[in-house]
Amino acid sequence: MNFRLNVVARAGLAGALLGLCALAQAAEPVRLALIEGLSGPFANAGEAVARNLGWAIERVNARGGVKLPGGARPLELVRMDSKGSTEEALALLRAATDQAVPVVMQGNSSAVAAALVEALNRHNAREPQRRALFLNYAAVDPVLTNEKCSPWHFRFDAHADMRLSALVDVLQQDSALRSVYLIGQDYSFGQHVLKKGREMLAARRPDIRIAGEELHPVGRIKDFLPYATKIRASGAQAVLTGNWGNDLTLLIKAARDVGFEGKFYTFYGNALGVPATLGESGVGRVVAVAEWHPNVGDKASEALVRTFRQRFPKPQDDYLHLRMQVMVEMLAQAIERAGSLDATAIAKALSGARFDGRGLGGLGAGQMRAADHQFIQPLYVSTMQKAGSEGVRFDVEGSGYGFRTVRYLAPEQTAQPHSCKMAPI
């Protein structure tokens, strides 16, 4: 009798262990590789992205993770520090694909993004059993969804021409404006912004004089005073720039120090130290464009901001961008529709997908255009104002200054033609 009980007990234990093993396998995380500069001159921008993506992943996991035929699985963010180097980023992509990571994410540098797209195209053609997707949250050179478009690349940020067009829509309404200075980072994205900026200004405000234009090395200038001095001496009434990260913050600080009193029309002037750097002198003078900002004025946005700040209470961590939240939500939905972690199946589920804001309180609605894999979404142009003034409930980074909407563009207004000839998969 004891022998039989022992056998039954052992059989039960073995069955339980097998069940636990199966459960452990079913709960194995779905790894998402973040290839980004987490050290070096743009480390603050890289870490801000990691916080956004990490928080988005936490929310998906709090709902039980992604539902797959074998059971729900959590998402896991794998941090991979490229140090801002293209060569390092390519080496990390090889490491990720060698480990069969199904999704890589990157955004801070269009030059890095272009190299990753080309490398991933070659890898996916050579090793179809270990294909991966590239989700792009910030590399906005239009070429990535035009001449260099790829079935494996999906961009969730508005590209440079979309952002620039929205800014110029506001700039051209300033009838007192007569001169603009163009300055940018000397790589593909910065060069494109200057070229396209000249074209758009000539088309929409031919009376505006280009007071000067300048390209500077990326992430290597510690003192922008010589550039700010030239801007002030040019007589420009405004600066138009696509600069990001410390290259923007240091430029604006130098402009303040030399007494430049013109406006700044920026892609990214609403974060990473810019409002705190300018303080009161930036009120009404810093203009930024983004897919969303904390003061758009609806309850869902207010709830999102408050929840984010509960999770990241330090003012220096206050960097919340909706597109990164949307990207993770859409990926989770695409994985569930595909019913698989196969990159080809996920790509097909993501291409053409609409997002209705599910998981974000109705925020972030848009569509991943199938023809070029450019996400079509709204854009807001906003201007820096003192927190507590009309329309500015939330400040930025504890600075006491936030942004108020001056122009809203619906998705159909932000969409632009493309020249992509998407390869089949």
UniProtKB/TrEMBL annotation:
CDD domains: PBP1_SBP-like
Cross-referenced SUPFAM superfamilies: Periplasmic binding protein-like I (SSF53822)
Domain Leucine-binding protein per the UniProt entry, residue ranges: 29-388
Gene3D superfamilies: 3.40.50.2300
Highest taxon above the source species: Bacteria
Keywords per UniProt: Signal
Signal peptide annotation: 1-26
InterPro entries: BCAA_transport, Leu-bd, Peripla_BP_I
Keyword Signal part of the UniProt annotation: yes
Family: Belongs to the leucine-binding protein family.
Protein name per Swiss-Prot or TrEMBL: Putative transporter signal peptide protein
